[in-house]
Structure formats: structure tokens, C-alpha cells
Amino acid sequence: MNNDMDTDMKTDELALMDIATLAPLIADGDVSPVEVMQSQLARIEALNPDLNAYTSLYPDAALAAAKEAEAEIAAGRYRGPLHGIPMAVKDLFQVAGMERTCGSKILSEGVANSDATSVARLREAGAIMLGMLSLHEFAFGPTGINPHVGTARNPWDRSRVCGGSSSGSGCATAGRLAMATLGSDTGGSIRIPAALCGVVGLKQTYGLTSRAGIYPLCESLDHGGPLARTVRDAALVLAAIAGEDAADPSTAGARVADYTALLGRPLDGVRIGVPRDFYFDRLHPEIEAAVQAALVVLDDLGAVVEEVVLPFHREAVQGWNVMAMGEAHAMHGGHLQNNADDLSPDVNQRLRLGEGLPATDYIRARQAQARVRQDMAGVLAQTPILAMPTTVIPSVPIDTGEIMVGDKSVIGWKVLGQLTRLACFTGQPAMSIPCGFTRDGLPIGLQLLGPWFEEPLLLQVADAYEQATEWHQRQPPLGI
Q: Is residue 440, in this structure, part of any structural domain at all?
């Protein structure tokens, strides 16, 4: 750094940089992790009181960790692209030295002594934990509206929701209050806030990353994964957290790959299937237009874009409903029994949907899951990538939870998860990337699905689209 003015200018801008751009500067010693952290904390101090992305923040611990990272790098012990990078996680993850609430007033765990596996792996990669992020109570809702800890406000329009359940993760990523975040996805809870906040959200293959230390909602549907500003940043975070973990048996078959290997490669000949039936029904017209335009871009990039039929989609959605409601009630039935009046009204209502669910219905849903996976494998053998909208509507107002589509009022919590449940039911990887904005300035997401453990291909397609467009370069109008 040449002079104080250059230092000040650079410090002001550090929190706005993506990880892939910032990491080489840290590695070369041009930028200090302490400067990065100071820039990040200053932005949080200025914006978080209004945005409400964090349920708790630990600035002293974060600065201390930044000083340790600075010393390690100066001593030649650079760990990789996440070293010295400020990150935050959904208040569902266990983080040593921090208190988890799950966005509820009935949970009292105290300060954790250990990390969730994914958090531990991020720390091993050199990432620094800032704090815990807002969410829909117990991660059971698609809007993020939370009467207990407050609702995270959409950085693009602070009267609107961020989407759920990883609302704070979407808010912090879009508002540049963390350089990347972790969320969880049981029926769309990473991809919905990514779409509504205009960032990248990746739900990786079920079993690729550990769920150990993540407060469970539905054992067979839960995923923990990254939200990031760019596709490459999401790939870097996934690389740090992927892999087998003895504490989570679902990871026994995890197949780890180089998630940046195919980034930047052309899409010539890559077949992309577009399921019109159901996934393009009753869309907000501006979402439909943006997604159609995105498909044209993919075609122009050399991909073979063609229509496909998913005859099993309704069976998948029905099966997801049975499994999700049954498993959520099994996990949280005690809360209903002992603290029902202290739950958010909508969470109370949704948990009750699992009461008295016949075991035979659950077993049939699991059998349907096996069939749908087999049928999906057949589709992906012909068209390995599927493309569709992430949500049928953009963000809804916090005060009403509803939006007008034409002359009809649409209730957000009823429809925001419609298009994201399939990939959780099958366990295949899926992600949302920005593909436009409504006339009111609200982000729109394009959803991509791929084959199991083929995240490099999924990321390749997402990256090619991202680099051919400018949506990821836009920043919310936050005034600083």
C-alpha cells in the first residue's frame, strides 16, 4: 500500500469484494485479514441494525481470529482461499463460543463448546466466524418471518422478506455483511433466500457434507450448504466442507471432487432440460420472462436447451410433504406438547400437520422416494442439467406476507417452496443463481439441478451463465 489514502480507500472496499478476488491479495500480503475484518465489522455496525441479519455477533473474537490469521500468513502458513475470510452461519449450526437459539425463545443451550463439522472444516480452512444469522423459527418456513428474534429485511427492499428459512444467510450475503454464509435446506431453505436476495445458493448432494452439529428438522431431507456472492465463491466454500464424517452416517458414500475444475469451460453440447409442466405454471410474469431470457443465454452459450417431462413431480411433492411433516413432528413434537403457545403461529400450525400421520403413509412416501430417484436418473442420463425458476413469486412484504399476481393475492408461505422441494426429495444437487430483477427491483432466481455428486458440472453451467450476464455484479441500494 502506497499511502494512507490508498489504505483508506482499500479498507472501505474490502467488505465489498468477493472471496476469489480478495484471497490472492491476502495470500500475497497486499491485504491483511485484520483490515478485512475491520472493514467487515464496520459495515455490519452500519447496516445490521436495520437489516437484522444477525441474531448474535462476536466482534472481539472475530478480530482476535483475524490477528491470528495475519500472523500465520506472515509466517508462511497460508491455508488457502478462505484464510482470513469473514463468514457467518445460520443460527442452527453449533459454533464453539457462540450460543445457538434456532430463532426460538424456547431453546436454551448456552454457549457451545464445539463446532458443527462444517463449521470446524471452515475454521480449518482459515475462515473466521462472525456470528449467528437470523432464520425462520427452527428452520420450518419459507418466508423468514420470525416474531421472536425479528425478521431479516431484504437488502433490495427492506419492507420485504429475505425468504426462508435461511433468511439471515441470504440477507448477510446480499448486503455484504459476510463474505459467504452457511444455511440449511430441507425443502428450499438455501435456494429460496438466494433467489429472493439475488445471490448464489447451493444445496449439494445429500450426504456430500456433514449435518453433524446442525439442529435437525427432517433427518432424511436436511442439507447444510453455502450462500455466496458468486458461483466460484460457492465452489470454494463447498470444497472446504465436503467429505465423509464419522459423526454423520449419511456421508459414508460422499464423493468429493475439484469444484473449480470446470469453471470457465464452454457449455458446447451440454444438454439442459426444461420441465414446463408444473415448474412454469402460474408464475409471476416477470419471473417467467427473466427465466425465459436466461434459457436463451444458455442456448447462446452452446448448451442444448430442450423441453423434458418429469411425470413424477407430483408424486415427489406429495412424498416430500408426508416425509417432511412426519419427521418434523417426530423432532419437534415435544415442543408442541410443552411449549406450543411459545412457537411462532405458522410453525405451530405446520408442526401439527404431522400429528397422527400413519406409519404406512410415511413408508409409502419413502418407497416413492426410491422410485422418483430412479426415474430422475433416467431423465438426467439424457439431459444432465435441469433448468427452471427457483420461486413462483418474488419477495413478499413482511407486514402482509402476500403479493398480488395479476388480480389474485398469493400467500407467500404457501407457494415459495413449491419448486425447490423436488431436489430435496431426490437428494440431487441444486442451486439458485441470480437471473434478473422485477420492475420493482426485486431479485429473480434461476434454479439448476444436476446429477448426484456432479457438482462440478452444475457449477460449470451456473458459472458460464453468471459470467455471461451482469446480475451478480449488482449491489443492493444500501446507501454506503
A: yes
Of 32, 39, 90, 167, catalytic: 90
Catalytic one of 39, 165, 184, 432: 165
Q: Which residues in 117-148 are b (16+ Cβ under 10 Å) and which e?
A: bbbbbbbebbbbbbbbbbbbbbbbbbbbbbeb
d(CA 91, CA 103): 7
Q: Output the 3-class SS for 175-194.
A: CCCCCEEEEEECCCCCHHHH
Please state the domain count of the chain. 1
Does the annotation mark 90 as catalytic?
A: yes
Structural domain contains residue 368:
yes
Instruction: Read off the pLDDT of residues 281-300 as tens digits, 9 standing for 90 and up.
Output: 999 999 999 999 999 999 99
The answer to whether residue 408 is catalytic is: no
Active-site residue, from 184, 189, 344, 395? 189
Q: How many residues does the chain have?
A: 480
Q: CB 310: neighbour CB atoms within 10 A?
A: 21
**Predicted local distance difference test score (pLDDT) of residue 10:** 64
Query: What are the φ and ψ backbone dihedral angles of 84, each rounded to 5 degrees?
Result: 85, 5
Residue type, 350: R
What dihedral do alpha carbons 406, 154, 419, 261 form, nearest 10°? 140
Q: Does residue 165 carry a catalytic annotation? A: yes
Report the CATH number at residue 104. 3.90.1300.10
pLDDT tens for residues 47-65?
A: 999 999 999 999 999 999 9
Strand, coil or helix: what is 444? strand
Answer for the pair 121, 244: CB distance below 8 angstroms, yes or no.
no
**Domain interval for residue 40:** 4-473
